Amino acid sequence: KMAADTSVEILQKVLENEILQTTKVVEEHLDAEMQKLDQMDEDELERLKQRRLEALKKAQQQKQEWLSKGHGEYREIPSERDFFQEVKESKNVVCHFYRDTTFRCQIMDKHLTALAKKHIETKFLKLNAEKSPFLCERLRIKVIPTLALVKDGKTQDYVVGFTDLGNTDDFTTETLEWRLGCADIINYSGNLMDPPFQSQKKFGTSFTKLDKKTIRGKKYDSDSDDD
């Protein structure tokens, strides 16, 4: 029995020793891996830093290019001929067809001025509808104000009057921003499925919801079908 006990002890010691050895090997292996990771991290961080710097440089160059093409401010163009030149040189253009005698055009001006500063990636223009009969005919502009949304030189969408903006003169800049986001004519960071005017009950104006309104071939329902 004693011999059996001794052999059990020896076996235990051998096992413990094995475990210790294994643990040591595992620890050494982990240490080596950690060291490798530390090394990699430094290189990786350096690479990330370089990539970030390059991206910032690129973004800065892009911004300068946009500014040189008249982005960043909302401005009037004198004639139809200018319209074709302007849309040719910029990927995203919003053009407001206005009339001096239409009060709602001044409301639109206020919001477009704010958005032009915020969305430097898009060119914001205005053109007097009475001085551009050919364009108004060609683009079938019948309601003033109308915004023509031009992408890659082609008119993709229109914002006609204030119908899509909550049907009120009191719509916010955010509401117009959302609508332009739906048309993918600006880089919109909000949620397209949640129009800002739905939470604007404080005005006391009755807002009509965009019921199954199709924008750019997509349906943006005011309420989800699960309701």
Automatic annotation (TrEMBL):
Q: Name one Pfam family in it.
A: Thioredoxin
UniProt KW NADP keyword: no
Report the GO terms under cellular component. centrosome; cytoplasm; midbody; nucleus
Where, subcellularly, is it found?
A: Cytoplasm, Cytoskeleton, Microtubule organizing center, Centrosome; Midbody; Nucleus
Q: What keywords is this UniProt entry annotated with?
A: Cytoplasm, Cytoskeleton, Nucleus, Phosphoprotein
Q: Which InterPro entries match?
A: Thioredoxin-like_sf, Thioredoxin_domain
Transmembrane helix is among the record's keywords: no
Q: Which domain of life is it from?
A: Eukaryota
* Thioredoxin domain segment(s): 53-181
Query: According to its UniProt entry, what is the function of this protein?
Result: Significantly diminishes the chaperonin TCP1 complex ATPase activity, thus negatively impacts protein folding, including that of actin or tubulin.
- Assembly description: Forms ternary complexes with the chaperonin TCP1 complex, spanning the cylindrical chaperonin cavity and contacting at least 2 subunits.
Stated name of the protein: Thioredoxin domain-containing protein 9
Q: Which gene encodes it?
A: Txndc9
